[in-house]
């Protein structure tokens, strides 16, 4: 079975044109979300219509989270609640411990730590493990989840962030996550069959740095997390298209 993915979003945190960057990666009938921005179910529904692939929360086997910035993690509350109330199961969450360390107290608890479970009752205290099944990722060894084998590497970003190499079906997809230009990370990602790399302003990767990479690597690279002002037609690296299915 081949390894494929659909970009549910390709934009940055400030985009007025696109959803925030997120991938739905598929192998052997299982879907792994790479990051989970809001509104994640609407993003999946629209991608289903454009790509002709059924996508919804019931098909998501897990979320692989790169970091806690809202444009990558804001959909976790909604998807966690949907899994809890509708699917009656915990949402499996793959992330490095340095990423999840402040996920509950610093991000999710304010909206999820109290829950009225019966009409007229008082709120009950809830905890991270009531909604999520955490699976720690490692920068020292790969972690297997269903058909996906995930390798992680830290990037240079404001908060703890990990890039991924996702193996399945005899192929490998590299994902830079958010990062400044990092030659070591580029070399690590270059071992993948296809590399999805961000480009943006500030503490991100300038397009000019990627455009200067060797032609064979640029041919195996796709761009994501680009700003609304990015000139798609002028790029010598193919920008990903939101809602299109790609085979690795």
Order of helices and strands: EEEHEHHEHHEEHEEEEEHEHHEEE
Query: Numbering strands along the chain, what is their spatial order in the largest sheet?
Result: 8-5-4-3-2-1-16
Q: Please mark out the parts with pLDDT under 50 across 5 or more consecutive residues, or reply none.
A: none
Question: How many structural domains does the protein architecture include?
Answer: 1
| Helicity, as a percent range | 25-40%
Written overview of the protein:
By secondary structure, the chain is an alpha/beta fold. The protein has one domain (4-247): 4-Layer Sandwich (Metallo-beta-lactamase, Chain A). It has helices at 40-51, 70-73, 76-87, 97-100, 103-112, 128-131, 183-189, 207-211, 215-219, and strands at residues 4-9, 22-27, 30-34, 60-64, 91-95, 114-115, 124-125, 132-136, 143-145, 148-154, 162-168, 171-175, 194-198, 221-224, 238-239, 246-247. It is globular, with a radius of gyration of 18 Å.
Question: What is the strand and helix layout of this fold?
Answer:
Elements: E1 4-9, E2 22-27, E3 30-34, H1 40-51, E4 60-64, H2 70-73, H3 76-87, E5 91-95, H4 97-100, H5 103-112, E6 114-115, E7 124-125, H6 128-131, E8 132-136, E9 143-145, E10 148-154, E11 162-168, E12 171-175, H7 183-189, E13 194-198, H8 207-211, H9 215-219, E14 221-224, E15 238-239, E16 246-247
């Amino acid at each position: 079975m081949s390894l494929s993915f659909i970009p549910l979003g390709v934009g940055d945190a400030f985009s007025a044109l696109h959803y925030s960057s997120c991938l739905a990666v598929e192998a052997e009938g299982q879907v792994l979300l790479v990051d989970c921005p809001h509104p994640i179910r609407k993003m999946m529904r629209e991608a289903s219509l454009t790509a002709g692939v059924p996508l919804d929360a019931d098909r998501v086997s897990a979320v692989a989270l790169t970091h806690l910035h809202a444009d990558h993690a804001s959909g976790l509350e909604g998807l966690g609640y949907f899994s809890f109330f509708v699917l009656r199961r915990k949402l499996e969450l793959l992330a490095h411990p340095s990423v999840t360390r402040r996920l509950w107290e610093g991000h999710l608890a304010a909206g999820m730590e109290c829950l009225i479970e019966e009409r007229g009752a008082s709120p009950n205290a809830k905890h991270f493990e009531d909604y999520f099944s955490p699976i720690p990722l490692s920068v020292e060894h790969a972690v297997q989840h269903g058909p996906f084998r995930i390798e992680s590497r830290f990037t240079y970003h404001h908060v703890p962030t990990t890039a991924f190499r996702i193996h399945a079906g005899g192929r490998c997809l590299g994902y830079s996550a958010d990062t400044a230009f990092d030659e070591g990370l580029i070399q690590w990602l270059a071992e993948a069959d296809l590399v999805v790399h961000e480009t943006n302003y500030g503490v991100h990767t300038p397009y000019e740095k990627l455009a200067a990479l060797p032609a064979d690597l640029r041919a195996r690279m796709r761009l994501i997390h680009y700003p609304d002002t990015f000139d798609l037609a002028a790029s010598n690296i193919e920008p990903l298209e939101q809602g299109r299915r790609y085979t690795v």
